[in-house]
User: Fold Ferritin from Bizionia myxarmorum.
Amino acid sequence: MKTKSEFLSEAMVKLLNYRVEQEEFSSRVYLAMSIWLDDKGFSGATKLFKQYSDEEIIHANKAKNMLFANGIRPITPALKQPKQEFLSLTDVILSAMEHEKEITTQCYALTKAAHTEENFMVVELGLWYCKEQAEELNKVQYLIDRLETFGEEPSMLRELDEEMGELAA
Assistant:
C-alpha cells in the first residue's frame, strides 16, 4: 500500500482520514444517544437514532473509498467516548443539532481545502458531504420544530417518539 498519491496531497490525505474519524465518531455519538433513549423507554427515537448511527458509517466509508481509490490505506482512528447521559429527549435532539452543526463546519472546510488545491475529485466528495449535511440539519430541525410547536409535555413527547419511530426506515 502506497503512502503517497499523485492525486491527493498529504493535506488532503489528512483531511480525508479526519473525515473518517469524525464520521465514525458521529456513529458513536448517535449510538450513545440511541442507547440512552432505549434505557428511558423512547422506542421510536431509539430506532431513529440507531439508524442515524448506521448512516454515519456509510459516510465514513465514502472517505475511506476515496483514499483506497488513490492507493492510500485509511487510518483506523482511536475514538473518544461520546457523551453518555442526557437530560431528556429534548436534550438529545438539541445535542444532535449542535453535533450536526460542527460536522457541517468540518465538511465545508474539507470542500474549501479541496477547491483551493483544485482537487476536483475531493471537491465532488466534499460537495456530497455538504449536501448530506443539509439533509442532516433538516432532519434534526424538523424534530426541534415539532418540540417548539407542540411542547414537551409527556403526552406530546410520546407522540413525537412514535413519529420518530415512523421516520426510521
